[in-house]
Amino acid sequence: MEQLIELFRRLLRLTDTSYVRYLHDRIDWSSRMLGIVGPRGVGKTTMLLQHIKLYHNVEDTLFVNADDIYFAEHRLFDLASDFYKNGGKHLFIDEVHKYQDWSKELKMIYDYYPDFQVVFTGSSILDIYKGNADLSRRALSYFLPGLSFREYLILAKDIRLPVYSLQEILEQKVELPGTERPLALFKEYLVKGYYPFFNDPGYDMRLRNVINLTVENDIPIYAKLNMASTKKIRQLLYVIAQSVPFKPNFSKIGQAIDLHRNQVADFLFYLEKAGIVAQLRGTTEGVRLLGKVEKTYLDNTNLAYALSDNKPEIGNIRETFFLSQMKINNDVFSSDKADFTIDKYTFEVGGQNKQQKQIQGISDAYVVKDDIEYGHRNIIPLWHFGFNY
After folding, report:
1. What is the C-alpha to C-alpha distance for residues 205 and 209, in angstroms, rounded to an integer?
2. In this structure, are 42 and 158 located in the same domain?
3. CB-based contacts of 209: which residues, under 8 Å, 6+ apart?
4. What is the domain-level CATH number for residue 299?
């Protein structure tokens, strides 16, 4: 345990707390057990370390990575038990999905040590409602996405602006004071601003590594897939990257990569859970994730650039940005006549020359235009939707 403590203290010293992601203040940190899930690379580890540095006493707190070689010979439950007996109060576990019996042992810790807190992170494909033990009644779960355009401006440019609700965006209340070229900053974000490591050397290579680890490690662990299935998921992702946005034809895709149509649907579901693709559905009595899939996109614009050799179709980029930003706080569905619907609102997304004909005669309808700095009436600049979280 001494080595784990030493590694934890070293990481803590190197943790910057100048900006903490928006989700931090929405979390009930007093809960006995809580999980933070999200795609690879979005900053879950950093958030845990920041919280510890800002609010905890290191003498009764321990941070460990479930992938540490220590766990090749030691059980997670035994570590928690020993730490508790030596005065420990808070155990933070990073990448808990890397530990085989994570759900069973977390349940044991929760049940046997009622005055002990456990906080864990995991891949967004992690499902605390399944596994060897049901944690749904014990653990609160929170989802952390990648950076919004607003958060990118804070981290990259130290431009600090508030979150705007959808209603405030539609009322043209978004402002970017002191910045003469919002569109230039927006273009930067679209290419490499979604992941917090945007300033690190070799961003494209790091992003591809995120994709590879997700496809080769996270999804197979979750779905218990073999190497052959992993190869098929790679082929499917290539088809998606070359075609987005597209209306999925499971039978046709299955024939192209030699998969049954049901397997195609399953693999797309895994890729969506893992934060690699986003599936736009039709409304089914307002219930999210139950409607028929109308279009499939890559999850964010950075992935679109990375998987298309930096030559994605601009219409795809615009729609991908809108969906990736708005789905965090809103239920976004397809529209029969335009691109998207959110609540009672209809949205048609396009360039600065986009006309009103698709939404003519529709109430509460808006044209979302790229390449414009200011909006008026029912015309909203695309970049404004990056301030919703």
Report:
1. 6
2. no
3. none
4. 1.10.10.10
Element (H, E) at 92: strand 90-94
What pTM does this model have?
A: 0.92
H or E segment to which residue 88 belongs: none
Q: What angle do CA 59, 121, 133 make, to 5 degrees?
A: 105
Q: What's the rounded mean pLDDT across residues 54-68? A: 97
pLDDT (tens digit per residue) in 292-310: 899 999 999 999 999 987 7
DSSP state letter for 131: S
Alpha carbon of 72 to those of 69, 76, 96: distances in Å?
5, 10, 14
- Does residue 137 share a domain with residue 226? no
- Percent of the chain clearing pLDDT 90 (strictly above): 81
**What is residue 94's DSSP assignment?**
E
How confident is the model over 123-172, as pLDDT tens digits? 888 665 555 556 777 889 999 999 999 999 999 999 999 999 999 999 99
Name the residue type at position 58.
V
Q: Based on the domain organization, do 134 and 249 belong to the same domain?
A: no
User: For residue 282, with 0-12 CB atoms within 10 Å meaning exposed, 13-18 middle and 19 or more buried, which class applies?
Assistant: middle
